[in-house]
Amino acid sequence: xxxxxxxxxxxxxxxxxxxxxxxxxxxxxxxxxxxxxxxxxxxxxxxxxxxxxxxxxxxxxxxxxxxxxxxxxxxxxxxxxxxxxxxxxxxxxxxxxxxxxxxxxxxxxxxxxxxxxxxxxxxxxxxxxxxxxxxxxxxxxxxxxxxxxxxxxxxxxxxxxxxxxxxxxxxxxxxxxxxxxxxxxxxxxxxxxxxxxxxxxxxxxxxxxxxxxxxxxxxxxxxxxxxxxxxxxxxxxxxxxxxxxxxxxxxxxxxxxxxxxxxxxxxxxxxxxxxxxxxxxxxxxxxxxxxxxxxxxxxxxxxxxxxxxxxxxxxxxxxxxxxxxxxxxxxxxxxxxxxxxxxxxxxxxxxxxxxxxxxxxxxxxxxxxxxxxxxxxxxxxxxxxxxxxxxxxxxxxxxxxxxxxxxxxxxxxxxxxxxxxxxxxxxxxxxxxxxxxxxxxxxxxxxxxxxxxxxxxxxxxxxxxxxxxxxxxxxxxxxxxxxxxxxxxxxxxxxxxxxxxxxxxxxxxxxxxxxxxxxxxxxxxxxxxxxx
Length: 532
What we know:
alpha/beta
């Protein structure tokens, strides 16, 4: 490929510091360590981040970059073509799509965003498309890949950079796939990681409160989430192939306070709106159709319900507990129905999703109480998990959780208030303190718990070491209790600091729970069965 084909994909003015002679290109990257002959280096940078790709341009040149793309003037780089654009983030997304052959034009693309529920909804939608024979791609918090060949996502990043996203889409086509499901975070949307992708279905699970450290205000956070809906409009690159083209649809939670705003934005992008909800509430204004579940009944470690959709009516079996997981299942149905997947294919596929890493994962080593690992890391999601466990418990609710450092501070006291009101005892501990003092983070959570009426030593305790906090919770549990380990879920490290510098340590929440149970006298090392 010639670099001119990449530049043709970029929107806006382009200023080139080279003579225009052909420059062969094999790849594009924003990581100078990946640069070699034939690779174009794009110097990206984002607000709130210390790293600026422009600081690595000289490194990329030393490694033999075919060209460098910048969005501000740099000292003259002899012998290497330099291209200046208005936005390197946008340029990276479009160049990555061009190098990959614009794969989104040959796929039906489902995007899923929201504060909570993204991963479960994405996983369920992917399972439905697998069952329908679509060989779908998946980019999600817990896994990435094509069809049934998924690899765990071990990074703390849900939506990777555009190059990685486009590689998954291209691999999907190579494997004969016709669809893909992309989990889109507010950071990923704001930073253009899914730019140059025209979506066909956009799902918004529920938008509450998170990442205000980055976005500044709730309105800015909501705007970032809603920008997924804008991407339902025709985008850059080739038009959608007729074989994958479907009418554009937005699936939005009916009870979300922002439903009207989100639905209006979807309409402006030319999409129809499917609302999803539990219960008999009337269809909200701006909704063109409904996907609804009635008569919810607890069933073992899950919920059964009757579901009514534009594609028929049937029995919905969700093998993950909580009404919030029923809503996730409805969102998955609302996402795949427009891709012409029959309801009688979707329902068994959803029933088959009985385990997701770190999502309502029950740890059973023969103990007389329940231990659950979940990724809940916002006040809303933590409250939903604790409420569900209260409904299923004959004893106390004990919760272990913390809050991330260098992230949204406003949610810390709110999480403390939720724990104080919905749990019987809370152990406040590490999550990912990063470069913040972990004791200060815990103090902010504790302040919220005290404000809600909890007393230290009676309603909560501070144990900064997460391993010790997990073990303390297991020791304290008695017959009929539920121990909820919240906030880490599937993640494989705790991000902290060592001697003032960023440092990560390996972490396995499920493994730590099993070890704590073994120490307490239950089960054996590597014994037991995980059921979610």
